């Protein structure tokens, strides 16, 4: 394809993302579903080229920043608290699902070698970070469930990729060693973690010395790719390296970033991740035509592969239910005997966790990387694509309904110890304490009476409001509605002054920024 045609295709896809995302919002559908369906329709439009994905390029472009973004914002304290459950999913569930899918595939397609069946299982077993984020953004889950799903999606790709590599090697060599596989996994994970720590530490040191906000934001963009590419170049886990870097950067960004950098950087990352996630699903859908043509057309898929593929989709879904409910039962038994302090989830939470297992870009990219002469490659590719389509369309569209059906509630132990208003009151007390100490000079003369009065008033109001949100909600909303009207009037007057030439561009930008910050503060307080 000519470079100009490629650029035009990207612009068309960007327009399609906006239209499909808007349509999904209007119809109440998950955007991932609309983008996937739109991409599939896009693939078969006459006159458009066949979109063939380079699996390595797809992983390198999309995976590092998406993993970085997930790790950046995850609650590290809760991640540590629930690491046992996360590892049970990221390691145990992936291995168990791989075995189940391999057994079912070998039973349905006896001519397929065991190693090829294992490769298929490793490809489809890890739920995808992008798919999980796309769906979880539209539903409300208790903190523990959210952390388990987010943490699982960050770490499970490493497990699946190691299993896949060993399955490919087993076909080539005719031998497989569980001991070698475990040793390899430990080396890959440990090496990736060390690379991630090193890159994260260098990022923190570098940002402290950068005085330009754009350089700070650019460095945060560089960090995930630097971590991933460096780890992959020395043959350790790029996934673990990127996640580790993201955890470090997310922890220290509150210290090293000034407020304006954090605001600008958050806005930049939000738009970039939105576009990347959208492009991922659109590309997955758009690659349908290429996948179908590779395996011989729709006729071959329907006649020879439809039933085994559906059975594999059902097998991996059942395997996840078995693992989650089985693990929860074991935990409940150990807790009852006093051998384990970890609290079981219960039927409702286990149901949601079992159903939230969407696959995505990693599954497709790894399936496309299967060597051309690999036994059963066409079947593996078709099954992998069907798993992505099936899990996103089925589980992605019904997860909200399942949450409502099981009437999931957040346990008291998972709720934060302080409410938002109580935290605001604590912050206000800390602020007024500092102002009181510095409002007087050495002789006791009050230097900042209005500032002191302002902070004292804010502390009193925050203390009165804490724990009484419902009582003050109507008055509060009316108050900030008026504040927003005043900001809108100020903005209109500011634009009038600029349009009539009474102020210059610099004054416009500075005063507009102040109004923007005031509006954001009012909207946040009103919410």
**What is the H/E string?**
HHHHHHHHHHHHHHHHHHHHH
Shape: globular
| Average pLDDT over all residues | 83
Radius of gyration (CA) equals 27 Å
In percent terms, what proportion of residues is strand? under 5%
Provide the low-confidence segments as ranges.
none
User: What's the total helix number?
Assistant: 21
Helix/strand-derived category reads: mainly alpha
* Percent in helix: over 70%
The count of strands amounts to 0
Biggest β-sheet description: none
Span from first to last CA?
Answer: 49 Å
Short summary of the structure?
By secondary structure, the protein is mainly α. It has 21 helices and no strands.
Question: How would you portray this structure in words?
Answer:
There is one protein chain. With 527 residues, the protein is mostly helical. The protein contains 21 helices and no strands. The longest helix has 39 residues, at 298-336. The protein is globular and about 90 Å long.
Write the topology of this structure:
Layout: H1 3-27, H2 31-43, H3 55-73, H4 76-81, H5 83-108, H6 114-124, H7 129-136, H8 143-173, H9 178-209, H10 213-233, H11 238-256, H12 259-286, H13 288-295, H14 298-336, H15 347-355, H16 361-368, H17 377-406, H18 420-438, H19 449-465, H20 469-499, H21 505-526
